[in-house]
Amino acid sequence: MEKTLFHIKEMDCPAEEQMVRMKPADFKVVKQLAFDLENRDLTVFHDGGLESITAAINSLNFGSSVTATGAYTESLPQDDDTTNKKLLWTVLIINFSMFVIGLTSGFIARSMGLVADSLDELADAFVYGLSIYAIAGTLIVKKRVARISGILQLLLAIAGFVEVIRRFIGQETVPNPIIMMAISVVALIANTASLLLLGKTKGQEVNIKASKIFTSNDVIVNIGVIAAGVLVLVLGSKIPDLVIGAVVFTVVLRGSISIIKLSK
């Protein structure tokens, strides 16, 4: 096996990375591609066929050149897609678990904040599932996945605002603040762990960026629900819970708009 390093001067964004990625993708001699977008480098692990690979990459006219080539006898390094998939599967499981726990606790505690947060976790789980599907796809697929994710969050936000208004007008009992705070602390720990895991993903593809935006929003939401639980405990009122519910869906709305813009 051989290892060849290409420097590609004009490969400075994910769109161009995808164009480069697709060029040698059908060559049977190509065993693995490793991208370093920051330094604009591409490492190709292959069994011969260097001239054909070089010609395919050069056809993009991105200012590519071979900077090093030689025999490679070690095992192939773990590729970025495999690493990203494992990390996304982990955060998907974390988010779906927190959805089940949060929704159940929300109904028991009669807390709109917890219910809203749990539905946000469910939406995020769908987002991560779509991101896993998109990792091996083309740039067009990745953008479509990000757009679907954004629309999902947008619909969730609208439904949430309607429910907050209904509960504000209706005769709702005061939620249980202890359950609110306890579950939100657990969710905060889970989402912080998810954010740290996502920080380990390589590349800046649109679906990965979308996942990081959603998880960052979750951390903010968890802190807000904890604060609302404290106010409910002190004031003995349902209003803080409804306010944080509205805030949660505002965060969801802003996140959905960010993702939809990102998908363009």
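Next protein, fold it too.
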Amino acid sequence: MIKHLISALLLGLTLSGPTRAGGVDDLAQLDVLDGGPTKLGSYVAALRLTLPEGWKTYWRAPGDAGIPPRFDWRGSRNVGSVSITWPSPEVFDQNGFQTIGYETQMVLPIEITPVRADRPIHLKGEMEFGMCKEVCIPGALKFDHDVDADAPRNPVIVAALAERPFSASEADVRTAACRLLPTKDGMQITAQITMPSAGGHEVTVIEPGNPALWSAGTSTKRSGNTLTATTELVNTGSGSFVLDRSNIRITVLGKNHSVDIQGCDAG
């Protein structure tokens, strides 16, 4: 496990920090798209990252190596909260490692709740990301955008929202239980999920909901309607840690669709 972790970290070293050197600004483009108001008084928008043909960027859980996108909203005005919807990603094999992300373009729908409903919303900040082809390079692009409160529905955002994973109820998940076993470096977690197949070769991602824990590669096997996924959560901090089952997030990526499962019972 430690050897696997070190190898993955070494592969990801080229993504250890943001840079604007090396032509990242020329390779990648970041746009803010308007999607109009919702019935709840919030507003829909999206961050669209466009890359050259063949380039890939990472999902929120990047797999064996790489870094997820990170967002800095501190320059924004009249923004109470921002909720991101992650469309279902693809699974790639990169130098013997499994990575998860998007090819050529990533559209992340966001729902913005203003502090004051009668005031305009201004989005200003920065997104850090990694992008890979034959080589992997980090990048950071700024955004500065006045939200159009009267914008119509945006078909690009609608399409990205349609690509979100199914919820547990939508995917007919009957049970999701997690068995925990302490290990030398952290905690082994085995998730047993009763659900129909998501299609083809299924890949499971287990996110611990604790930033001190790093999730190693997950093995997935299916027997009938039972999916079993096992991974080791490595403690990257010092001292003990707490693992709350209600914060564990399990994503099953299949050929036909993906499934987002929030929390799991004791196994």
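About the second fold: Residues 1-22 have pLDDT under 50 and may be disordered.
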